[in-house]
Amino acid sequence: MEKLVQIKNLNMYYPVSSGFLNKSKKFLHALNGINLDIYKGEILGLVGESGCGKSTLGKAILKLIQPGGEVLYNSENILEFDEKTLKQFRKKAQMVFQNPYSSLDPRMTVYSILREPLVVHGIRDKKKLDKRIREIIYLVGLNEEDLKRYPHEFSGGQRQRIAIARALILKPEFLVADEPVSALDVSIQAQIITLLKELKEKLNLTVLFVSHDLGVVKYLSDRIAVMYLGDIVELSDSKSLFDNPKHPYTKALISSVPSIHEKEQQELKLTGDLPSPMNPPAACKFHTRCPYVMDICSKKEPEIVKISDSHCVKCFLYS
User: Fold this and answer.
1) Whole-prediction pTM
2) Residue ranges per domain, the chain?
3) Per mean pLDDT, which range of 61-65, 174-178, 211-215 is the poorest?
4) Strands (E), 23-99
5) Distance (Å, rounded) from C-alpha 6 to C-alpha 115?
6) Side by side, which strands form the sheet with 223-228?
7) Is 143 helix (H, G, I), strand (E, B) or coil?
8) How far is Cα 14 from Cα 26, in angstroms, rounded to an integer?
């Protein structure tokens, strides 16, 4: 498969001030040497607990923040783009943010919200503008009457449809969806997930879908990356990950998903403390909570082990 995005040794550290007069400087380790490929035309799910660095990775890929390392988009490092090249890149790659209540300007009508990206990118002919806006509004399941209204006049699900329309108005190839359904009711979540799946097929999109909800990710994703404390600990196609998870953290996540059916395996409960992202262990970051911990786990960091062509894991149990 053709690689659209290649992430190489991506790091992101946030400075945190503490101590008397905030003179002591520490760093929060949000991303620790991430290596990940995203293939053209796939939906890659990114899962993990809150605070593990999922949203940071999504923003770093689009250079909404400035990380260390490389992000290659069609073999070009976007982290080295100047302002003009970055503006052109923005037409190809867009983001849908988590909260539709805060990501839409309450002072703008839906028409103005959708018009703005087109004008910024040089499309000012009114006929072309109106044609594209009508196309996209119908595509996300809204109608022309909605264009005159303001965000506060819509439900949460409708607002997220507007946010998706804004992200797709420039006909991008790549979409980062950062927990786009977590702020919505469960009944509305299903509609937005189905919409994203349909749009992916119709528009031939490549999607990085960030979520902490394994049920949603299983339904939507071709492959899944599991993230823990700034590291990718397991990467696999969706079926293999759920049928045969390898990393103890992945096993714990999957066993904790509620089900109406009797579970084949006993639920794996995690004990111990979550390490601080300001002072993560130099060894395996999961060893403080792992039920299968060995001596080596607290002494050095595990290598990535290839289980099959589509499945790899970062764990000493398989090395």
Assistant:
1) 0.91
2) 246-319
3) 211-215
4) 24-39, 43-47, 68-73, 76-77, 93-96
5) 32
6) 93-96, 174-178, 206-210, 43-47, 223-228, 231-237, 311-314, 304-308
7) coil
8) 8
